[in-house]
Amino acid sequence: MNPKHAVFATSPELHRVRVSRWLDWGAATDEWTRLDDRRRAHEMPHVRHFEVRSSDDPSYRGLDYEPWQALPVEERPKWVKLSRSHRNALIALGREAGDLQAAADAMFDSLSGDPEWAHLPAVTISDYTWAAAQFCFPNESRYW
User: Fold this and answer.
1) What's the pLDDT score for residue 32?
2) Which residues contact residue 82 at a Cβ distance below 8 angstroms, ignoring those fewer than 6 apart?
3) pLDDT grade, residue 141 (50/70/90)?
């Protein structure tokens, strides 16, 4: 079986993150070419270099998948997908806050300080946390 490959970005701020899905060799090198052309055109000044590595390489296999970290802000997705454990921690934080408004405020403070959400406008984060707070306190949300 042929190992899969992915593109990784390296920079002083990002350290090293995986910025593509696991792909076959040809698709990974095509993605590397596309991203590196943009880097050389100075569209991604925060990236030192891109590299393609195999899923068999233990020093790269466990790195986080953060595709938006290598993209310019205007191209980053308008959403963030939370892992189940991160989502559960956020919901627990909201429930501990005590009521609907306090839950939304606590979750907003948590997410607005998270670098993964830094590219999103505050109103988007606020909308997300308000919806999550309503999930935590469904009886209270009826009255809003």
Assistant:
1) 92
2) 90
3) low
